Amino acid sequence: GENVEQHPSTLSVQEGDSAVIKCTYSDSASNYFPWYKQELGKRPQLIIDIRSNVGEKKDQRIAVTLNKTAKHFSLHITETQPEDSAVYFCAASLMTNSGYALNFGKGTSLLVTP
Amino acid sequence: DAEITQSPRHKITETGRQVTLACHQTWNHNNMFWYRQDLGHGLRLIHYSYGVQDTNKGEVSDGYSVSRSNTEDLPLTLESAASSQTSVYFCASSLTSGSDTQYFGPGTRLTVL
């Protein structure tokens, strides 16, 4: 199937610093790009998403940028806090025979140290 | 409140046994998905359904089956459990299509001995 590459696999930052996670995708038909946060032992939860007709979207301390030409999108977290520590997954929509599904990256484990 | 639930939350079984994991959502979502999560592999799609009587194979469907007899439920069956199927299984649902927000259930941790 089509791949979503996510980097880095682990990221450690000091509280207050910014964190950036990058993803690339290969399916040019992808038009929806969500980001999920998963705390230890919990379910993945949507934190922000972006569609292909938009280049950037912000929600308080988090933002996502999309470059459709280069087929990459990024998650930016500013003023990081210890509670931001979690695994973050990017995903890209992919066309199937019957409709759309999501293809996920392998995740980035973010650690924010006080 | 509408929600998505999974049962059991934890299951230990033996190699060769048939196992069924339940997923139930009360949002009246058309689309339901099953993923498995393994360290280093992220979330991989097993099967999905876009409506009643519709089922489709995902990236890692071998050894798994699903059926969709109503809108609310998409049970996942392991026909003959193997140790390689030890994993955490997540069910998800979305309203319109795979390009819409997917909401995840709490997960089922399955151990095959």
Task: Name the descriptors.
heterodimer; A: 114 residues; mainly beta; 6-stranded mixed β-sheet; 5-stranded antiparallel β-sheet; B: 113 residues; 7-stranded mixed β-sheet; 4-stranded antiparallel β-sheet; 0% helix; globular
From the structure provided, what is the oligomeric state, counting identical versus distinct chains? heterodimer
Unreliable residue runs of chain B:
none
Extended strand count of chain B = 11
Distance between the termini of chain B: 37 Å
Computed structural class of chain A: mainly beta
> What is the number of beta strands of chain A?
11
Topology:
The complex is a heterodimer of chains A (114) and B (113).
Chain A: E1 4-7, E2 10-14, E3 19-25, E4 32-38, E5 45-51, E6 56-59, E7 62-67, E8 72-77, E9 86-95, E10 100-104, E11 108-113
Parallel strand pairs in A: 2-11
Antiparallel strand pairs in A: 1-3, 3-8, 4-5, 4-9, 6-7, 7-8, 9-10, 9-11
Chain B: E1 4-7, E2 10-13, E3 19-25, E4 31-38, E5 42-51, E6 54-57, E7 64-66, E8 76-78, E9 87-94, E10 103-104, E11 108-112
Parallel strand pairs in B: 2-11
Antiparallel strand pairs in B: 1-3, 3-8, 4-5, 4-9, 5-6, 7-8, 9-10, 9-11
Structure description:
The complex is a heterodimer of chains A (114) and B (113). The radius of gyration of chain A is 14 Å and the shape is globular. In chain A, the strands form 2 sheets. In chain A, strands 2, 4, 5, 9, 10 and 11 form a 6-stranded mixed beta sheet that branches. A 5-stranded antiparallel beta sheet of chain A has the order 1-3-8-7-6, with no helix packed on it. Chain A contains no helices and 11 strands. The N and C termini of chain A lie far apart (40 Å). By secondary structure, chain A is mainly beta. Chain B is mainly beta and 113 residues long. In chain B, the strands form 2 sheets. In chain B, strands 2, 4, 5, 6, 9, 10 and 11 form a 7-stranded mixed beta sheet that branches. In chain B, strands 1-3-8-7 form a 4-stranded antiparallel beta sheet, with no helix packed on it. In chain B, strand 5 and strand 6 (54-57) form a beta hairpin. Chain B is globular, with a radius of gyration of 13 Å. Chain A binds chain B through residues 1, 6, 31-32, 34, 36, 42-46, 49, 89, 91, 93-94, 96-107, and chain B through 31, 33, 35, 40-45, 48, 50, 54, 56, 58-59, 90, 97-107.
